[in-house]
Specification:
Two copies of one chain form a homodimer. By secondary structure, the first copy, chain A, is of the alpha/beta class. Chain A has twelve helices and twelve strands. In chain A, β1, α5 and β2 form a beta-alpha-beta unit. Chain A binds a DNA duplex through α2 and α4.
Chain lengths: 338, 338
DNA sequence: CTGTTAGCGCCTTCAA
DNA sequence: TTGAAGGCGCTAACAG
């Protein structure tokens, strides 16, 4: 029951194992007859390449790994679906791993992946610590960051693909201003997240330049979930809520706000306007129809794969760069003129 | 920049590579001195085992793969989190893959995994076709099904761990009966899903035995999402809705029902009672508090890992069996006495 | 067109 | 306690 190898096939076919290898790889220089005979035997005996041996010999596998901070966030689930498609188009397989840059055992994960000689890694993270981590490993395996890093604070730039959070924040502020809002709140910015910080900063700066007042409510936890949004919103609603609009750090937070609003008998957008960020699929459902910023997940993933494979295949020393993709405002029904 | 190997270390240490191998594996028979020297050199030069080579030599890797029909379903996300923990406790790594039994390229995925000599596979599926697929591969790699198979229709039993759907359906029917409901609907059963079929069958049988009338609304799509639930519920609400309770095939469907209910200005549980199945975390949120059946995801995953590793490690021919874990009724606030 | 040989990095007897 | 040698399954360069 131990797996059949090319040697077995070679013996059965009465040829050498290199001939078998050649036919399996479609290398030229095998006569039609032997090729057919060999392929028949392979089928017949259920031969299956040992990818470990192949990768060992090649010095590299065809696996691209992506590291996600959580499977539970629908944003990532949607991104991975796209990622998978592009990676497969290019002839690679995707291996989904679960890990956060902040975890103490994150280096073990990297060691494991490098130990397996994965072709490359796409790291989903918006932690401040990710550039440091990446720089520690970038010499040993191609890595692309899906997320943003603090350009000012990072000496060596790392290859990254991300939404343009500054543009997003600005767009949101301008949109709310245009609708007549003058008192707004930014809900749920996470200190540890660079994306959140940029969004928040850009939003508040733009808003204030336009003469709006902005209240910022930080998210002290490490997660941006519906539940967290719910609790933050309750805080706002209990603590005299004078503002006419809320810009949530992301859609999940916004969904939590909607839940809390119902509890407080506040209707959206009649009592206040609400905006999110991410365009997770649930946000587009009827009865939700959240106005949000669409980060163009497909394009993000396409670029990330491109950027990674450029490094994998040509091992080019192309200057690592931060590629920004501007989001698009999606007007749905949670914002109205005031 | 090519990775440093045991040979490199051996040369630097002035020993043979087998000595290095021995110290790396903690094998006995290496003097303290050489051991320390070698370990120091490894650290110093950033040595990292080549797991491909090790696995090739061992004939087996330490990767356990799990195949999910979708990352987007929160049920799976929650399960994988637990799975990951148990797998790591046992010294293995988890590789998450995305694939449905119904997909045409599912065998490619299996070939890929077997090609990589993964230690085992946990297949998440409730498709009718999964036993057939498993039987095709079970001789080549340990597989455990997370889901149910049709015991009557399957000649050779496959190792499986699953919720007791029959018990669940019965419990739901009895619970609703106890609350005084006499006209109920079962919403969203998927033909292609064995779990759904069993739940539905058991629910309707029990209900009818108790003298209740049951209307069944099948889900014709392949997915059990909030959106699907929403559309099914609308169908019910438009088509004179006389029943006093709805049992949804799963929580996601139930959430869709809640969305639709709001649109129709129906309140839960005043206008009708609602039950789900799965206990996804979102269902426990305030303002949702869905009454549901908890499948005990942790226990399910613990058992699945146990069952798989039993086969991996002792390659025992233990009679493959279907392990059923009965769910628990979680009374929250979407059901009331009628 | 095909076989021989060497090597990928590691582990594991068998001798010394 | 250590080294030499062979093998895991496959690829590839070099002969024939």
């Amino acid at each position: 029951m131990s797996p059949v190898t090319i040697k077995d096939i070679a013996r059965l076919a009465g040829v050498s194992h290199s001939t078998v290898s050649r036919t399996l790889n479609g290398s030229p220089g095998v006569s039609e007859k032997t090729r057919d005979r060999i392929l028949a035997l392979c089928r017949q005996h259920g031969y299956q390449v040992n990818l470990l041996a192949r990768s060992l010999s090649a010095g590299r596998s065809d696996i691209i790994s992506c590291i996600l901070p959580g499977l539970d966030n629908p944003l990532f689930a949607e991104m991975v679906l796209n990622l998978e498609r592009y990676v497969q188009q290019r002839g690679y397989h995707i291996m989904v791993c679960h890990g956060r840059v902040e975890d103490s055992n994150i280096s073990q994960l990297f060691d494991f992946l490098i130990g397996h000689r994965v072709a490359g890694i796409i790291l989903f993270s918006s932690s401040r610590q990710s550039p440091e981590l990446i720089q520690r490993y970038i010499g040993r395996v191609p890595i692309v960051l899906q997320g943003v890093f603090d350009v000012a604070a990072t000496s060596i730039p790392v290859p990254a693909v991300t939404t343009d959070n500054l543009a997003g924040g600005r767009m949101a502020a301008e949109y709310l201003y245009k609708l007549g809002h003058r008192r707004v709140v930014y809900l749920g910015t996470r200190q540890s997240s660079v994306s959140h910080s940029l969004r928040c900063e850009s939003f508040t700066n733009t808003a204030r330049q336009l003469g709006m007042s902005v209240r910022v409510l930080p998210n002290e936890t490490l997660f941006s979930t519906i539940e967290v949004g719910y609790h933050l919103a309750k805080q706002i609603f209990l603590d005299d809520f004078q503002e006419t609009a809320i810009f949530a750090a992301c859609d999940s937070i916004a969904l939590g706000v909607m839940t809390a609003a119902k509890e407080f008998h506040l209707s959206i957008p009649q009592d206040f306007s609400l905006m999110g960020f991410d365009n997770i699929s649930y946000a587009s459902y009827p009865q939700i129809r959240l106005t949000t910023l669409d980060p163009h997940k497909k394009e993000l993933m396409e670029r990330a794969v491109e950027c990674l494979l450029e490094r994998v295949e040509s091992s080019s020393k192309r200057e690592p760069a931060l590629r920004l993709i501007p989001p698009t405002l999606l007007e749905r029904k949670t914002c109205s003129r005031v």
